[in-house]
Design brief:
This protein has about 110 residues and is α/β, with parallel strands linked by helices. It contains three helices and four strands. The mean pLDDT is about 95.
């Protein structure tokens, strides 16, 4: 499971706070010319999974719970990556879904 498989939900879980978290596993370097497009495709796949209601069929624990998308990055994002991620957070949060990212090394 990884960022380059846009039709796969990498990880879905419930946090100790009761939020449903869909995690994207991103192992790509920010020098990879296709990285942003692959990540955008993956995020859009997650959003489709949520907005279509498929999440409730596949993971009934999500019913009546806050949902967020979390991107686990292997590499620290460059300036372009940070700008992209911040824009994603703004758009996704405005849709009522949480969005955050972190580096594997920060865990």
């Amino acid at each position: 499971m990884s960022v380059d498989k846009s039709d796969v939900i990498d990880i879905i879980s419930t946090t100790v706070e009761g939020k449903v978290e869909l995690t994207i596993s991103d192992h790509l370097s920010w020098d990879d010319t296709n990285h942003l497009q692959l990540l955008e495709d993956k995020i859009n796949g997650y959003l489709s999974f949520i907005e279509s209601g498929q999440i409730y069929e596949d993971y009934p624990e999500a019913i009546n719970r806050e949902i967020r998308i979390r991107t686990a990055l292997k590499y620290e994002p460059n300036a372009e990556g940070v700008g992209f991620l911040e824009k994603c957070r703004e758009i996704i949060n405005n849709a009522g879904i949480g969005f955050e990212w972190h580096n594997f090394k920060d865990e």
